[in-house]
Automatic annotation (TrEMBL):
Residues 29-172 form the Transcription factor IIIC subunit Tfc1/Sfc1 triple barrel domain. The keyword Transmembrane does not apply. Residues 209-358 form the Transcription factor IIIC subunit 5 HTH domain. Residues 548-570, 583-593 have a biased composition (Acidic residues). It holds the Pfam family Tau95. It is found in: Nucleus. It comes from Myriangium duriaei CBS 260.36. GO terms for molecular function: RNA polymerase III type 1 promoter sequence-specific DNA binding; RNA polymerase III type 2 promoter sequence-specific DNA binding. This is Transcription factor IIIC subunit 5 HTH domain-containing protein. InterPro entries: TF_IIIC_su-5_HTH, TF_IIIC_Tfc1/Sfc1, Tfc1/Sfc1_N, TFIIIC_tauA_Sfc1. Residues 265-274 have a biased composition (Pro residues). GO terms for biological process: transcription initiation at RNA polymerase III promoter. Its main location: nucleus.
Length: 593
């Protein structure tokens, strides 16, 4: 072992046999052209020519991107811009022994001869008709055949390269248009005489010149498609090969019926898998829900999940399509009805009708507005908003009773069935209200206008009072039971009267009522007289608190609509869409569909 002057040791056993190349300090910039280059001269012309390339690739630190024209002879063609990348490459010159094209049989000493139409490629010919460059596997084969008769030189290091990875924009071929030819001939000619001779064309033409840019972006598109991992290929019983998606969710065949559907389903869809083939948890859910439907043929999603706590929420729609069908509109909106049962056939099903309200307190509205203004999530459930604003807030009622309304607590649902209304006054209306002779499939079901009107008006007002108390509104801590009872008594006595007779028939005894109670009674009666179309809980609270006189006109409103300040009208409309469902997604299927 020997040491050199610098102290490094040289071990012959460890010396590499690889060839050492000296790399000159020349500056080379490479261009990865997006096209296959058959003619170098034409390839250079697509980049603007040698002079343009020299200016672009100047060594002053301000190199501009190259522009490649897919149609170099068209000055109106959109160009593809390059991106500059820093690399660490070396440009090599590999020289292989020149092949004569003659062959002889391996292992013999016969003379070399030409066979067939073999030709010798003249790599030194400067003609434009050149063959394509050899591929990588061909080059490796030539290197293997050449053995040590290969001359390799390092030309220069490559520090910069230009790659074309952006969108070339959409191309418009308009060379044949007369106006384009006129502009090209006169304005794009480098001579001054040609430019001076340009005059606008006097002939009319229907040709529309394309815009300077069609695409509003330059980011390249991702065309490297791959197979969906959830898709697999199977062979069915008939021998046909098909593709299936193993990750696709199970399709549900049960769709919501309109209120005026002529027929109802009496059995599950025959395309559903047999129940014995279903997973065990789903079979158990079907059994529990079937037992519940045998005692209560019509129910909401919330009521079903509360009464069957062992049924997981995600399995509910899959199980119900074997047992029931939903109504998406009408008096039984958002309910699931046992297969074969038509609630429109008999008044005995009127306790299962639903009342739907939009619940959104003022504090939740303000919280939603702040969340939107700060760029937060657009979608939020109203009980989540209330929780975020008041972390110490406690849920009212127990989770298993959220489908029940007793007039004292308010859960996070928006839909109640009349059989689940335990408020004594409202339950009395459900029992004593007159029954229609024919069902109203659009709105009131088996209730008259006055009966459904008093139910909606009183329940809406009670909900408004509960919401106000949750928001800490001390002005709403008032008991209206005396007013409710008198209005209910009057309406139930009057029954179904013509509208013009209500003024004389429906009069409340106000002798011992305060002014505020009189205004409340007048408001409730006008709401009922308006055929129960008022849907403005919070609007009603604002009007009663502002001292509305009995002879003032009350506009019909909807709960959650424009009942805030005037400048919040647009926000109220947005909130009605975003926060109308207290349960969000949960209630949108609740209750039925």
């Amino acid at each position: 072992m020997a040491a050199d002057a610098d102290g490094y040791t040289s071990d012959p056993a460890r010396t590499s046999s690889a060839r050492t190349l000296i790399v000159p300090h020349n500056r080379i910039v490479t261009v990865e052209h997006p096209c296959i280059i058959r003619d170098v001269d034409r390839g250079i012309s697509t980049l603007g020519g040698p002079h343009h390339i020299k200016q672009i690739l100047q060594e002053n630190g301000n190199a501009l991107p190259l522009a490649a024209a897919l149609r170099a002879d068209d000055p109106f063609a959109r160009k593809l811009h390059s991106q500059k990348f820093d690399v660490s490459h070396v440009l090599l010159r590999v020289a292989l022994p020149k092949r004569t094209g003659r062959k002889r049989k391996r292992g013999t000493n016969d003379p070399f001869e030409f066979h067939g139409n073999d030709q010798v490629v003249n790599t030194t010919d400067d003609s434009k008709d050149r063959s394509l460059p050899i591929k990588a596997d061909q080059l490796l084969q030539k290197l293997k055949v050449a053995g040590n008769d290969v001359d390799i030189d390092a030309i220069a290091p490559i520090r910069t390269t230009h790659r074309f990875r952006s969108l070339p924009d959409f191309q418009l071929a308009d060379q044949d248009a007369s106006i384009i030819q006129h502009i090209t001939d006169k304005l794009l000619d480098p001579t001054l005489d040609k430019i001076k001779s340009f005059t606008p064309m006097s002939t009319t033409s229907n040709t529309l010149i394309g815009p300077p840019q069609f695409a509003s972006y330059t980011q390249q598109l991702y065309y490297l498609y791959s197979q969906n991992r959830g898709t697999t290929t199977i062979t069915d019983a008939t021998g046909h090969t098909t593709s299936i998606n193993t990750r696709a969710p199970r399709r549900r065949t049960q769709l919501g019926l309109p209120s005026n559907a002529p027929t109802i389903p009496t059995s599950p869809d025959p395309s559903l898998p047999p129940i014995p083939t279903l997973p065990r948890p789903l079979q158990s859910a079907i059994t529990d829900l079937s037992t519940l439907l045998s005692t209560r043929p019509i129910l909401t999603r919330r009521a079903a999940l509360n009464l069957c706590p062992d049924v997981p929420d995600p399995l509910f729609p899959d199980a119900m399509q074997y047992l029931a069908y939903p109504f998406r509109s009408g008096p039984w909106k958002d309910t699931w009805v046992r297969l074969g049962v038509d609630p429109r056939s008999s008044p005995e099903y009127r306790p299962y009708q639903t009342l739907v309200f939009k619940l959104l307190s003022k504090n939740a509205s303000a919280q939603a507005a702040r969340k939107l203004a700060s760029g937060g999530s657009r979608w939020a459930r109203s009980y989540q908003l209330a929780r975020a604003e008041d972390p110490g807030r406690k849920e009212v009622g127990t989770p298993g009773e959220s489908h029940i309304f007793n007039g004292e607590r308010l859960g996070d649902t928006k839909t109640w069935q009349l059989c689940d209304v335990e408020d004594p006054l409202l339950a009395r209306v459900v029992r004593e209200a007159r029954v229609r002779e024919e069902v109203d499939v659009e709105t009131n079901g088996w209730f008259t206008d006055s009966g459904m009107g008093i139910l909606r008006a009183v329940m809406r007002d009670k909900i408004g009072t509960l919401l106000a108390r949750q928001d800490g509104d001390e002005g709403e801590d008032v008991e209206w039971e005396r007013v409710y009872e008198r209005v209910v008594d009057v309406v139930l006595r009057a029954g179904e009267r013509p509208r013009e007779d209500w003024e004389g028939e429906c009069e409340v005894d106000v002798t011992d009522l305060t002014d505020e109670e009189r205004r409340k009674a007048g408001f409730l009666l006008r709401g009922i007289q308006g055929v129960a179309k008022i849907e403005g809980t919070r609007g009603a609270r604002r009007r009663s608190a502002s001292g509305l006189e009995e002879d003032e006109v009350v506009d019909d409103m909807e709960v959650g609509s424009d009942d805030e300040d005037e400048e919040d009208g647009a926000l109220a409309d947005l909130e009605a869409l975003e926060h109308a469902s207290v349960d969000g997604d949960e209630d949108s299927e609740d209750e039925g569909a």
